[in-house]
Amino acid sequence: MSMETDLAVGGGGIAGLTAANRAAQLGARVLVLEAGEDEHYACNSRIATGVLNVAHTDPHSDPALLRQAIEVDTEGHAMPALADALAGTVGRVMAWLRVEGARMIKVPIHGTSRWMLAPPRIARDGAPLPGLLAAGACTGGIEGGPLGGYVGGFLKAATLGFIAAETIGAKVGAPTP
């Protein structure tokens, strides 16, 4: 079988699904490759809290403030170009996630109001867990890497997938808003 694609996405986690969906919206032909077969296999999105932040900072904050928070949170080890891209794009990603149907609520966590995906899902022991954007979404090892460990894994993954998709969309001639 032969298949022509503009983008092959490795992994059906939040970054991969965001990249695939956004690239398809922009006119790219997309193929998603996912190795996990069991719908309950262990991955970061299954245990992630669903809190949407960038370096413990509200993602709606000014990009300069987000960039500064990334610098502090990673102790200066973030790749500047990626940190700039994350800080400058995350606001658009939050809006895009809402348009795509993600529901977000503000919840108090350690005395600070934080955005969280909603509604909560229920764990096997009956305790409420934060809702996830898509059932079974996995981000693999996104917590490490060039932006450091605690920059906000779930939203970081979605934002980097979004940026990648818009890069591919630009290459296939799709307009980027």
What does this structure look like?
- It is a single chain.
- This protein has 177 residues and is an alpha+beta fold.
- The chain has one domain (7-171).
- Helix content is 37%, strand content 16%.
- The chain contains five helices and seven strands, in the order E-H-E-H-E-H-H-E-E-E-E-H.
- The protein has helices at 14-25, 44-47, 63-73, 80-99, 153-171, and strands at residues 7-10, 30-33, 51-52, 103-109, 112-118, 121-122, 128-129.
- The strands form three sheets. Strands 3-5-4 form a three-stranded antiparallel beta sheet, with no helix packed on it. Strands 1-2 form a two-stranded parallel ribbon.
- The longest helix is centred in the middle third of the chain and has 20 residues, at 80-99.
- The chain is globular.
